């Protein structure tokens, strides 16, 4: 049951990311891509800071004691936000979102298969491999539909 709840929460998180992309795309058109990204990270940092102060339970490690390579995860959000703020007004929220998911799926499967970044190994299966072309076809169909609508 916990796994089903995690899947539902991940779908909700994906929905929130699409909403964020649509809102940030509009904001970026009005104030600029970098200012939109700055707002996203500033508000996110402030909210996360409050959550750390009032909700976070103590951990055995700190940001100063973890392996330094683990800190680079913070850098991956910046290109994502900048690219989405730039892409959404040009190709639409759905196409940009599916493109991101295609990249996430492809990289996620490689991380799982090879156990990169100290993650558990989950081997490739025909079902996992079939998901990539299915998602690529979805991206092509959505993008093609966008082009026909405009």
From TrEMBL:
Segments traversing the membrane: 37-55, 76-105, 125-143
Keywords: Membrane, Transmembrane, Transmembrane helix
The keyword Membrane belongs to this UniProt entry's keyword annotation: yes
InterPro entries linked to this entry: YdcZ (IPR006750)
Upper lineage: Bacteria, Pseudomonadati, Pseudomonadota, Gammaproteobacteria, Enterobacterales
Species annotation: Ewingella americana
PANTHER family: INNER MEMBRANE PROTEIN YDCZ (PTHR34821:SF2)
Any one annotated GO CC term: plasma membrane
Protein name: DMT family transporter
Signal sequence annotation: none
Keyword Phosphoprotein listed: no
Pfam families (alphabetical): DMT_YdcZ
């Amino acid at each position: 049951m916990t796994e089903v709840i995690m899947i539902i929460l991940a779908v909700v998180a994906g929905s929130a990311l699409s909403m964020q992309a649509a809102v940030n795309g509009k904001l970026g058109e009005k104030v600029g891509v970098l200012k939109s990204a700055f707002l996203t990270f500033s508000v996110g940092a402030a909210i996360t800071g409050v959550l750390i102060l009032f909700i976070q339970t103590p951990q055995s490690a700190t940001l100063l004691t973890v392996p330094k390579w683990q800190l680079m995860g913070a850098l991956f959000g910046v290109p994502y936000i900048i690219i989405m703020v730039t892409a959404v007004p040009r190709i639409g929220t759905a196409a940009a979102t599916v493109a991101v998911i295609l990249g996430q799926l492809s990289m996620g499967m490689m991380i799982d298969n090879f156990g990169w970044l100290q993650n558990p190994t989950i081997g490739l299966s025909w079902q996992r491999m079939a998901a990539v072309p299915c998602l690529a076809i979805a991206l092509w169909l959505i993008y093609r539909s966008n082009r026909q609508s405009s």
